Amino acid sequence: MAHDELDLQLLQALQLDGRASFGRIAAVLGVSDQTVARRYQKLRTSLRLRVLGIVDETRLGRPSWVVRLHCAPDGAARLADALARRDDTVYVALLNGGTEVTCGIKPRDRQARDDLLLQRLQRTPRVSAVSAHSIIHSFFGGPFHWLSKLDALTGDQQDQLRRPVPDRAGELTLDATDEAIVAALRQDGRTSLRELQDVTRQTGETVRRRLNRLRSAGVLFFDVQYDAEPLGHGTDVMLWITTAPTALTTVGRALAGHPEVWFAAATTGVSNIIVSIRCRDSAHLFTYLSERLGRLDGILQIETAPILRQVKQRELTP
């Protein structure tokens, strides 16, 4: 199914505000409400489009980790599926010919972290090695999505849809009502206020106030997830980059500006930057590695790991 500029504009509009009404989006794009509704339904079918509510766990005092698990080929897929069913995993992928599973985790507390990293994964059959890396700084990702690099919308259109920058002063604590709202939006970020009222058993005004508070504090943002291959981007790769310590910030900031990069963060471990990139094909990947990355001073080593299958896809926020 062919996709045109209006489809890309709708994707970018939803990334700027995942709960924007079709009417508001239509007014910005200069089309009718019905056109936006039809295109939205088309993308849900053709690209498996989903808008999901994502919690920035660091605003709740919960650090993020990336875990690499090397395992026997006959055990990798089952392990990936099992990890995807866990509430504390935010993404799970099969890499390197099906012999590696990489996942992002956000444990609720130290005990949950230790139970997973020091006990469960270490004892998992068919796993030969486990390495865990703490994310210590974000360069690109989370609320800053790859769709923003499409430039399908004009600057003025983006300004009309973009929400105010969140106030990130201090950490927050969620109560039962907040948790119920977040749980519903994790499944469908466009869940209506009426449905959120039913879930929380609160008034519409209470739900609206809680939702605005979560968004304004930067605890909750909305992510657009879809199949990129039909749009011409069929090669996803993870890069583990080692830089000189003095070049860490410079390289990270340069990576954030690359059109191919949809996630980049500084991590602990031998490799100090983890990057996820999206390319059209292997030729595009070769050009990116040899020319764009090859021109950055301070890079000492690059390990590439093609993503065979994205088992679970949610944004990992440092």
UniProtKB/TrEMBL annotation:
SMART domains cross-referenced by the UniProt entry: HTH_ASNC (SM00344)
Q: Where is the HTH asnC-type domain?
A: 1-63, 174-234
- What is the superkingdom listed in this entry's lineage? Bacteria
Q: What SUPFAM superfamilies would the database entry show?
A: Dimeric alpha+beta barrel (SSF54909), Winged helix' DNA-binding domain (SSF46785)
Keyword Nuclease listed? The answer is no
Family annotation (PROSITE patterns): HTH_ASNC_2 (PS50956)
Q: Which UniProt keywords apply?
A: DNA-binding, Transcription, Transcription regulation
| InterPro entries noted in UniProt | AsnC-type_HTH_dom, Dimeric_a/b-barrel, Tscrpt_reg_AsnC-like, Tscrpt_reg_AsnC/Lrp_C, WH-like_DNA-bd_sf, WH_DNA-bd_sf
Q: Which PANTHER family match?
A: LEUCINE-RESPONSIVE REGULATORY PROTEIN, TRANSCRIPTIONAL REGULATOR AZLB
Name by which UniProt lists this protein? Lrp/AsnC family transcriptional regulator
Q: Lineage in the entry?
A: Bacteria, Bacillati, Actinomycetota, Actinomycetes, Kineosporiales
